[in-house]
């Protein structure tokens, strides 16, 4: 077992974006929505979103991310000690989709899912860091969601917002830098879960009746309920993660929040009083792919040179089940 204080860092990242791209006009025409393009963009900031092709699954996206990362690092799947997948739209209710990923990679290692919705990648990073501090050499943290298959296509709130995609990060021990502070939490004091799928679980098993009533579609609280909670939870998580890292917001070079909605991003940077020009906002071109949204934005910022070596980057999110978290990482 290593020291619990060993440094752990993101050594590489990968992205998978489905080739099927739906702009606002296409969504309106395809599903007969009674809104226009201006309505969608003014309320979400989204101009287009990626939806997974019908012949692919959540695990397919994650496997492609894994293969891309492994190829760049000149690694084989059997050199991974652990695969952690953040998802709320797995291939099956059981087993874990991480097990399917391990099967498709033809490898043997610890592999499991974490279900924390839009906060899932941060929860998975926390588990991955702990695993390396417990002796693992390489942990692959993935986030993949196919939200398009769990929404009512006639519900204009959902169909214009949600998207599909995947991203991942390879974690390894390092001499310095890497994760400086992290925090995850779940607020169990609230009466609502924020977003949920009513049927298909042990409370309300699948039946002809649940299907007929549309209870397998995602239900989401209204924006006036979501926005204040998002801001309050993210501020709390950011404060704790910064305190653990011994830093302040003035020390942060780049902020990558959950890419859920352009207005949510605006609200949180205003609440934190953080510069807009140092905040990553790509929701307009990808939509909200739940737990994959944040790592997609992070990986793109790295690839585009927005994040440079030595930069201290703040990640923060809030998700269904009233989960929330923040991470500070030095690249």
In words, what does this structure look like?
Strand 4, helix 4 and strand 5 form a beta-alpha-beta unit. A five-stranded mixed β-sheet has the order 1-7-6-4-5, with helices on both faces. A four-stranded mixed β-sheet has the order 8-13-12-11, sandwiched between helices. The chain is an alpha/beta fold and 331 residues long. Helix 8 packs across helix 9. It contains eleven helices and 13 strands. The protein starts with 6 loop residues before the first strand and ends with a strand. The chain has two domains: 170 residues, Thiolase/Chalcone synthase (Peroxisomal Thiolase, Chain A, domain 1), CATH 3.40.47.10; 151 residues, Peroxisomal Thiolase, Chain A, domain 1 (3-Layer(aba) Sandwich).
Distance between the termini: 25 Å
From the helix content, strand content and strand pairing, which structural class follows? alpha/beta
Q: Provide the CATH superfamily of the largest domain.
A: Thiolase/Chalcone synthase
How many helices?
A: 11
Please trace the helix and strand order, writing H or E for each element: EEHHEHEHEHEHEEEHEHEHHHEE
By CATH reckoning, the class of the largest domain would read Alpha Beta
The description of the largest β-sheet is: 5 strands, mixed
* Shape label: globular
What is the overall pLDDT average?
94
**Strand proportion:** 15-25%
Query: Got a strand count?
Result: 13
Strand order of the largest sheet: 1-7-6-4-5
InterPro entries: ACP_syn_III_C, ACP_syn_III_N, Thiolase-like
GO molecular function, one term: 3-oxoacyl-[acyl-carrier-protein] synthase activity
Domain Beta-ketoacyl-[acyl-carrier-protein] synthase III C-terminal: 242-329
Protein name: 3-oxoacyl-ACP synthase
């Amino acid at each position: 077992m290593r020291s619990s204080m060993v440094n752990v860092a993101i050594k590489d990242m990968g992205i998978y974006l489905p080739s099927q791209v739906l702009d606002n006009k296409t969504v309106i025409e395809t599903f007969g929505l009674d809104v226009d393009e201006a309505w969608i963009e003014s309320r979400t900031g989204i101009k287009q979103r990626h939806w997974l092709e019908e012949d692919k699954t959540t695990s397919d996206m994650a496997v492609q991310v894994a293969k891309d990362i492994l190829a760049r690092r000149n690694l084989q799947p059997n050199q991974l000690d652990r695969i952690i997948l953040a998802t709320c739209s797995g291939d099956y209710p059981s087993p874990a989709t991480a097990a399917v990923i391990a099967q498709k990679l033809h490898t043997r290692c610890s592999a499991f899912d974490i279900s924390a919705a839009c906060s899932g990648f941060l929860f998975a990073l926390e588990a991955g860091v702990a695993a390396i501090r417990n002796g693992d050499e390489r942990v692959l943290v993935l986030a993949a969601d196919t939200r398009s298959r769990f929404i009512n296509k006639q519900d204009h709130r959902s169909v214009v917002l949600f998207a599909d995609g995947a991203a991942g990060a390879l974690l390894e021990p390092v001499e310095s830098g890497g994760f400086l502070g992290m925090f995850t939490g779940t607020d169990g004091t609230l009466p609502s879960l924020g977003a949920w799928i009513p049927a298909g679980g042990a409370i309300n098993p699948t039946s002809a009746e649940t299907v007929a009533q549309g209870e397998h579609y995602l239900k989401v609280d209204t924006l006036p309920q979501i926005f204040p909670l998002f801001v309050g939870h993210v501020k709390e998580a950011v404060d704790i993660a910064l305190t653990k890292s011994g830093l302040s917001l003035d020390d942060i070079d780049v902020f990558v929040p959950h890419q859920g909605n352009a207005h949510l991003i605006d609200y949180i940077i205003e609440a934190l009083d953080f510069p807009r020009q140092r905040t990553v906002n790509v929701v307009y071109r990808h939509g909200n792919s739940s737990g994959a949204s944040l790592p997609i934005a992070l990986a793109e910022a790295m690839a585009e040179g927005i994040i440079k070596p030595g930069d201290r980057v703040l990640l923060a999110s809030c998700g269904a089940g009233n989960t929330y978290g923040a991470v500070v990482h030095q690249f």
